[in-house]
Design a protein that fits this description.
The chain is about 35% helix and about 20% strand. It is built from 9 helices and 10 strands. α4 (about 150-155) links the parallel β6 and β7 (about 165). The chain starts with 5 loop residues before the first helix and ends with a helix.
């Protein structure tokens, strides 16, 4: 600082010290994870809405305890799995183990799905066993897992449109409902909570009716599952496990369910 007046040296020194102090005390950028799913309300609903979905509200609560921010977007389910598997996103929300067996799962499920068959009102068909499916064409969604038994049936018959018809995209549920109504398929299979929520909110209550369900077992557990490419996946899975247990023990999870007119008995054993 040769040649700089003394008073200017003091100002520059003060500014340097102040800048260093501010830098030392500036908050670090918050850690952020990105969840993706298709629209599968009430589990995963529209982003940025007052009711983004059960899984999104659970995720935000459990990660907030760790100072981690959560962002959420909806894309078709097949893409959600593929791009999260590749490491583009952190996690898929509302997944069963059968959806993506290579992902990192919490040990505590966030909910459960009772996979139920639905037919057009007036239909006499009901699900009895796999043999009963031979009498209809079943509407399903690409890359969904419905239970080990039904997944195997779909894989075996996916190229036989008389038995299995698959749809994808953001409006897959609506597509299957319309196909049942128009008798393009004899039945569709869907989570009871999802189908009942859809029919009620779309003014279609009574147009489709339940016609049997799969036995409730661990095949139907649903999770927030993490990308196998993410180095923090195991840590995130532990956070979700511990956080979900804490929400259940405190009764906070029922407060979330109340917002979607659900009881824990309906989404959990």
């Amino acid at each position: 600082m040769a040649g700089v007046p003394v008073f200017m040296r003091r100002i520059l020194l003060t500014l340097t010290i102040a800048s260093a102090f501010i830098g030392m005390n500036a908050p670090a950028s918050a850690e952020t994870i990105t969840l993706v799913a298709d629209e599968w309300c009430p589990y995963t609903c529209k982003p940025d809405s007052d009711k983004p979905g059960l899984f999104i509200e659970i995720a935000k609560k459990v990660f907030a305890r760790e100072g981690i921010d959560v962002t959420y977007k909806t894309i078709p389910w097949a893409r959600a799995i593929e791009e999260t598997r590749a490491g583009k996103y952190t996690s898929i929300a509302g997944a069963s183990i059968g959806d993506a067996r290579d992902f990192i799962f919490p040990t505590e499920p966030q909910a459960q799905s009772v996979m139920t068959f639905y037919v057009k009102y007036g239909s006499r068909w009901t699900y009895q066993n796999l043999a009963s499916l031979d009498k209809i064409s079943l509407g399903t969604i690409v890359d969904y897992s419905y239970s080990n038994l039904i997944d195997s049936y779909i894989a075996k018959n996916k190229d036989n449109m008389r038995l299995v018809q698959q749809v994808g995209g953001n409006n897959a549920l609506e597509s299957n409902v319309l196909k049942v109504i128009k008798k393009r398929v004899g039945a569709t299979i869907e989570s009871a909570a999802v189908m009942e929520y859809y029919l009620a909110t779309q003014g279609r209550t009574g147009q489709l009716i339940a016609a049997g369900a799969m036995p409730v077992n661990d095949d139907q557990n649903l999770y927030i599952a993490f990308s196998p490419k993410d180095p923090n996946a195991k840590r995130y899975a532990r956070i979700v496990t511990d956080g979900t247990r804490a929400l259940r023990q405190s009764g906070k999870i029922q407060e979330i369910l109340n917002r979607y007119s659900l009881t824990e008995e309906k989404v959990s054993r």
